[in-house]
Amino acid sequence: MSSSPDQQRSAPTAPTAALVRAAVIGCAALALAVLTGRPLIILAGLPLLMWTLVAVARRVARGEEHGSPSPAVVSNRRSLEEGGTAAVSVTTAPGVLTAATIPLQPHSRFSPRHGSAAGDGTLRLRVSAQRWGRIRVGPVHVLVADSLGAFRAQHRLPPLDVQVVPSSTVLEAPVEVPTPIGVSGVHLSRRRGDGTALSEVRAFRPGDRLHRINWRVSNRTGVLHTNATFTEQDTDVLLVTDTIADVAAAPWSGEDAPTSLDMTIRATSAVARHYLTAGDRVSVFDIGHLIGPIPPGTGPRQLRVLTDALSRATREDGRARPARRLRTIRPGTLTVVCSPLLHAESVTQIGALVAHGADVIVVDTLPPSIGDVSVLNGKPLRLEGKVSDRFWPEAWAMRRMLRQTTVRELRESGVPVTPWEGPSSLAPVLLSLSAARSAPRMRRS
């Protein structure tokens, strides 16, 4: 678990107000008994004085370092998925009263609810992540005291960074691609060669493998026959993300409604997991600058690299940068573009990919609440109890209508466009991609 470079800050151990009061009252009772000559007055302050002496004696017997043990904070998980939970433990020493408080962070929930807990020696809090990214748990403020409550000290522990990866959504879609271009994999090629899918039974030719001889047909016809199969190949899958702008959902859709960046990250993670599981090579190219380019790779290691890069995307800097452009691509590469289709740079990049011979699918990641005309019923829209006079819904409704022209032009040029609605979003598109490839395409110079 990585932590912040901030050093641990500790306050010196100090007596509590209870110890001071007990010492003052006990000594005052002893002095008053001596001055007035009434020994019975000592009985009033003797219990408090004895408690004070026992607390001081225990502290001296244990030593200074044991009187105020240094707490430590650890987490049982370095990373978790959206909706997952990590346990954060604050440990001091047995018999030490411990109280800890963690500042509440956005897109996370704590148990106990307000991020505070108290106990004996070891505390356990749970952090639930509601959104991908990184959650900074801390700084943790810890208060420790001895079992008698006579001495206490405050500590400020550095925060912990918990990585939250996008949820592992499993696409409800086939793994077939129209143009397998590799040498080994699960996709069925149009070419005949070594594989497991039967193409035909034909007469034996010199060079055929002996283990593929079909003895039943050979015995029946008296001529040696062999089984011909289709070649099984893999493919290159390029995921293009559009992170130029993060469009928030409409105010009336709720606080947990995903933004366009949320939908882009989750769609990219789901598609990558889908094809990496099938053994294909997956790479990522970001038109914006939130996600660094990820070279092609396969297997679980590539999935870890990809999800780590996605979880590090953040909009905290807020700096505007020029859009990137992908210059070349291998013809036949299956390309999935996740974009809200609001910027000319992203549409231009889609046209360049089509012109280079890629099989392009566009996943629309604009939140559905943006431009929703169903909220416009001729009445003023109330947001947080106030009448909106900025025509925000009307403006986005007009922008969505203009965007429909872009979507229609892409579909007319043979590029399928489907909104991201969860695991089943790409199933119909992938099934009809072969037909889309045969449609006329617009070639741009």
TrEMBL record:
The chain crosses the membrane at residues 12-34. Keywords: Membrane, Transmembrane, Transmembrane helix. This is Uncharacterized protein (DUF58 family). Pfam families: DUF58. Residues 200-363 form the DUF58 domain. The keyword Transmembrane applies. The keyword Transmembrane helix applies. It comes from the Bacteria.
